[in-house]
Design a protein that fits this description.
Order of helices and strands of chain B: EEEEEEEEEEE
Shape of chain B: globular
Strand content of chain A: over 45%
Helix content of chain B: under 10%
Strand content of chain B: over 45%
Number of helices of chain B: 0
Shape of chain A: globular
Structural class of chain A: mainly beta
Largest interface: A-B, 24 and 27 residues
Radius of gyration of chain B: 13 Å
Radius of gyration of chain A: 14 Å
Oligomer: heterodimer
Distance between the termini of chain A: 39 Å
Chain lengths: ~110, ~120
């Protein structure tokens, strides 16, 4: 199973872009990269996912390197409400089931 | 409701007691997951259902933990002879497909405290 490595914590100024890195050097060719976030006392919330092309939605952009060994989640204009723990996950498929393996994530603090 | 619903939101019990935690997934979602989250850590996978069957229960820590989903919708996580180490937030998630690129939708969790 592929593992991910993320910084423990990061700060970002309100209104600036937040760039959250993730390393997944052992990712397999058919594994997706997912990002979730968890605001205090809530369940995790899906943000975005991708396979090898860059992706963008209303919440964020996902940049995946050409060799797929790392990726960056970009929140273009961070707000105080984006303060949360961000999880980078590589999806593992087992037979007909699957599970998303969450690591400790990156605690992002958006500062006023 | 529109989202994943979990009850109770908080449960305090004594060591050795039996506990049931309920999850009501999003209507039509065939895949259902249970996770456990301890303070300061990421969610830890417990079990995954596809329909009524447990497709992957490799995360259940021991035989005190059991989960059912008899009609392919609501699921119940059952913990026998609770121990203080079982204290955590138990998260339920559902997914439309459970395969390819199905994103997970999580509930707010059930906080279990074992005294």
């Amino acid at each position: 199973d592929a593992k991910t490595t993320q910084p423990t914590s990061m700060d970002c100024a309100e209104g600036r872009a937040a760039n959250l890195p993730c390393n997944h050097s052992t990712i397999s060719g058919n594994e997706y990269v997912y990002w979730y976030r968890q605001i205090h006392s809530q369940g995790p919330q899906y943000i975005i996912h991708g396979l090898k092309n860059n992706e963008t939605n209303e919440m964020a952009s996902l940049i995946i390197t050409e060799d797929r060994k790392s990726s960056t989640l970009i929140l273009p204009h961070a707000t105080l409400r984006d303060t949360a723990v961000y999880y980078c996950i590589v999806r593992v498929a087992k037979n007909y089931g699957q599970n998303f393996v969450f690591g400790p994530g990156t605690r992002l603090s958006v500062l006023p | 409701g529109a989202g994943v619903s979990q009850t109770p939101s908080n449960k305090v019990t004594e060591k050795g007691k039996y506990v049931e935690l309920r999850c009501d997934p999003i209507s039509g979602h065939t895949a259902l997951y249970w996770y456990r989250q301890s303070l300061g850590q990421g969610p830890e996978f417990l079990i995954y259902f596809q329909g009524t069957g447990a497709a992957d229960d490799s995360g259940l820590p021991n035989d005190r933990f059991f989960a059912v989903r008899p009609e392919g919708s609501v699921s119940t996580l059952k913990i026998q002879r609770t121990e203080r180490g079982d204290s955590a937030v138990y998260l339920c998630a559902s997914s439309l497909f459970g395969g390819a690129a199905g994103e997970l939708f999580f509930g707010e969790g059930s906080r279990l405290t074992v005294l």
